[in-house]
């Protein structure tokens, strides 16, 4: 790999030990992918997780004196103030989150704690070169916004934020951004939840960039978020195209760059039903909680929950995870108070994968509208059934599954 | 018969051990770090132990943080595979291996895949780009 003078100085440690450490890792990644050079980025988003590996690695960079050249926004861990106030966390169990907060602060990150930075706080333009990690963030930036990013790991995007560069390979090169697989959708995909199920067919779609054909172009932002997130639960997906919707896919020719698809896949109603069966544990009879907001809910989704509740009181808790941008707005508009009176708990800055906040739900009956939520909560022993939001709220009001 | 194969270094290191082949992509978060067993339901390695193995698999999957956390915990608890032989690269997997200093290679000759089966012994030298199937 050929480095510029500035990059070489960083690698050699003349700009400090922290920069050198980050640069060494990036050069190794670049060599792994046979990149020829490093290119500058203008934005970064680090999928901080407040898990041990995250704190260990970020701490290592901080101890070496690293400060971010491009201040990144960050993913949620959990809201220390919220969970301390409601008594679910004490100062001993929150050590990891406190350390995460301190370490990322010292590195110069912007502590947004949201997994939807592309809606608030960190919005790239079409064609912008960025370094975004997070299941739904990289794919949304590449597919919907037309920015260019690797599907970074938390650590690789943190290194990019520290150095201000990324190795050039994969999604940064135009020839790799065309479609590979033609996905003919022969199923009814209309509601946001249908798009989540479509995203669960990643194993059938296989590797490469999928191009979806046969979808009604009148789809919501939330549907596009769900599709990208779930494609990265059932497999890995850097970018997708939807003919007539996403910016690089006005026509099939444009999406495929004038080439023939490498593969063709048809998705049927049966595929969607099988995907749901595979990712949803069977519901328990009694429903104790609903978990919404994976990825973080938009204001529109929060409003919809209040509408579905219609002033009725839920039997258990309805957890709604979102960004502080949305909770602030909901406080101002009165939506937060309306939800609270029906049993809705609007929680900022928090991810469903935080076992220290949600581990106590193990053994109780839960339902979510996000297969990703079920997949990751299952990893710490909380079984959550997957249904559309209408069903989630109906079960919450009745306190039991149908 | 050919027993030495070329490969491409991702993360340096030398490792020797028993081969375990996965048909499916792997998310290391879905393992039990105390036993080294794969816990993901329906996975082709479900219930199998990856500790000290040379793991041959198509690639990674899952979110950008939990892959690294899974590998970190396997390493911490002494249940990590000794080496990784991967077909399709992704940034999450590659950066995790480099940071965790676990030997990983890709770009292995086709002949290796035709020869290799579970239980074979392999020596990998990632830095030199060499894989050797041991007698």
Summarize the structure.
Chain A has 402 residues and is of the alpha/beta class. Chain A has helices at residues 5-11, 17-32, 52-63, 80-85, 95-107, 137-145, 154-163, 192-199, 202-205, 221-234, 252-256, 269-279, 299-309, 324-333, 335-340, 355-358, 371-378, 389-398; strands at 38-40, 43-46, 73-74, 130-132, 165-167, 181-186, 210-213, 241-242, 263-268, 289-297, 317-322, 344-348, 366-368, 384-386.
Our count of domains of chain A comes out at 3
CATH architecture title of chain B: 3-Layer(bba) Sandwich
Given this structure, which CATH class of chain B is correct? Alpha Beta
The CATH homologous superfamily of the largest domain in chain A is called Aconitase, domain 3
Percentage of residues in helical conformation of chain B: 10-25%
Task: Provide mean pLDDT of chain B, rounded.
Answer: 94
* Strand segment count of chain A: 14
Structural description of this entry:
Chain A is α/β, with parallel strands linked by helices and 402 residues long. Chain A has three domains: 5-173, Aconitase, domain 3; 178-277, no CATH class; 280-398, Aconitase, domain 3, CATH 3.30.499.10. Chain A is built from 18 helices and 14 strands. Chain A has helices spanning 5-11, 17-32, 52-63, 80-85, 95-107, 137-145, 154-163, 192-199, 202-205, 221-234, 252-256, 269-279, 299-309, 324-333, 335-340, 355-358, 371-378, 389-398, and strands at 38-40, 43-46, 73-74, 130-132, 165-167, 181-186, 210-213, 241-242, 263-268, 289-297, 317-322, 344-348, 366-368, 384-386. Chain A has a five-stranded parallel β-sheet, with helices on both faces. In chain A, helix 2 crosses helix 3 and helix 6 (137-145) crosses helix 10 (221-234). Chain B has 135 residues and is an alpha/beta fold. Chain B has one domain (4-134): 3-Layer(bba) Sandwich (Glucose Oxidase, domain 1), CATH 3.50.30.10. In chain B, 19% of the residues lie in helices and 30% in strands. Chain B has helices spanning 66-76, 91-99, 110-115; strands spanning 4-6, 8-11, 14-21, 31-32, 37-38, 54-57, 83-86, 104-106, 121-125, 130-134. In chain B, a hairpin with a 4-residue loop joins strand 9 (121-125) and strand 10 (130-134). The longest helix of chain B has 11 residues, at 66-76. The model of chain B has no long low-confidence stretch (mean pLDDT 94). Chains A and B meet through helix 2, helix 3 and helix 7 of A and strand 2, helix 1 and helix 2 of B.
């Amino acid at each position: 790999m050929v480095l510029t003078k500035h990059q070489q100085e960083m690698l050699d440690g003349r700009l400090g030990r922290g920069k050198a450490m980050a640069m060494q890792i990036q050069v190794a990644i670049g060599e792994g992918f046979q990149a020829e050079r490093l290119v500058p980025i203008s934005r970064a988003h680090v999928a901080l997780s407040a898990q041990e590996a995250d704190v260990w690695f970020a701490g290592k960079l901080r101890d070496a004196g690293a400060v971010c050249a491009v201040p990144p926004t960050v993913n949620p861990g959990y809201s220390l103030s919220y969970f301390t106030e409601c008594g679910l966390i004490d100062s001993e169990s929150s050590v990891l989150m406190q350390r995460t907060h301190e370490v990322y602060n010292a590195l110069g990150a912007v502590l947004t704690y949201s997994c939807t930075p592309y809606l608030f706080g960190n919005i790239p333009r079409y064609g912008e070169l960025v370094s975004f990690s997070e299941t739904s963030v990289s794919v949304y930036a590449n597919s919907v916004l037309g920015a260019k990013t690797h599907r970074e790991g938390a650590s690789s995007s943190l290194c990019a934020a520290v150095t201000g560069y990324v190795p050039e390979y994969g999604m940064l090169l135009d020839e790799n951004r065309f479609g590979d697989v033609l996905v003919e959708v022969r199923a009814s995909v209309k509601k946001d939840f249908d798009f989540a199920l479509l995203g669960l067919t990643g194993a059938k779609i296989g590797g490469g960039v999928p191009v979806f054909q046969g979808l009604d172009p009148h789809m919501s932002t939330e549907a596009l978020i769900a599709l990208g997130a779930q494609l990265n639960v059932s497999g890995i997906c850097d970018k997708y195209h939807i003919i007539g919707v996403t910016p690089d896919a006005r026509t099939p020719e444009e999406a495929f760059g004038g080439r023939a698809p490498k593969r063709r896949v048809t998705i049927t109603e049966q595929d969607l039903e099988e995907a749901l069966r595979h990712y949803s544990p069977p519901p328990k009879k009694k429903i104790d909680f609903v978990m919404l907001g994976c990825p973080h809910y938009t204001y529109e989704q929060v409003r919809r929950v209040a509408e579905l509740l219609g002033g009725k009181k839920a039997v258990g808790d309805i957890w709604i995870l979102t960004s502080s941008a949305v909770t602030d707005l909901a406080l101002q508009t009165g939506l937060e108070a309306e939800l609270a009176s029906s049993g809705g708990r609007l929680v900022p800055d928090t991810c469903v994968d935080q076992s220290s906040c949600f581990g106590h739900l193990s053994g109780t009956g839960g339902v979510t509208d996000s297969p990703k939520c079920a997949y990751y909560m299952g990893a710490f022993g909380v079984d959550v059934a997957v249904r559309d939001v209408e069903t989630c709220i109906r079960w919450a009001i009745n306190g039991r599954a149908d | 018969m050919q027993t030495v194969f070329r490969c491409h270094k991702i993360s340096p290191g030398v490792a020797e051990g028993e081969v375990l082949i996965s048909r499916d992509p792997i998310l290391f978060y879905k393992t039990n770090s105390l036993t080294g067993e794969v816990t993901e339901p329906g996975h082709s390695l479900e219930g199998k132990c990856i500790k000290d193995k040379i793991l041959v698999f198509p690639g990674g999957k899952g979110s950008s943080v939990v892959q690294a956390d899974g590998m970190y915990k396997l390493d911490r608890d002494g249940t990590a595979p000794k080496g990784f032989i991967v077909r399709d690269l992704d940034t999450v997997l590659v950066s995790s291996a480099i940071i965790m200093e676990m030997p990983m290679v890709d770009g292995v000759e086709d002949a290796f895949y035709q020869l290799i089966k579970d239980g074979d012994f392999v020596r990998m030298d990632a830095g030199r780009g060499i894989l050797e199937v041991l007698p």
